[in-house]
# Entry
Amino acid sequence: MNLEVIEEWMESEIFSEVCTKAESGVYQFARFVNKFMSELQILIFHLKNQSHRGRIQLQISKLEFLVESEILELLN
# Structure
């Protein structure tokens, strides 16, 4: 996953649905959105501070894993 894919995913209907359910108080979805946004904030921090490319890629990988591992479970 790269930054463009993260951006596209955040603009997708699936992410919109997840956020709507989170805002409605569905705990599992709220927990996912909270974790996702936290990891995204860490990525933004590293990008702004021009951290080492390996650190940035690690953070992107964390986001990728979070989306792939948890979103499928939530939607099933």
About this structure: The two ends are 22 Å apart (CA to CA).
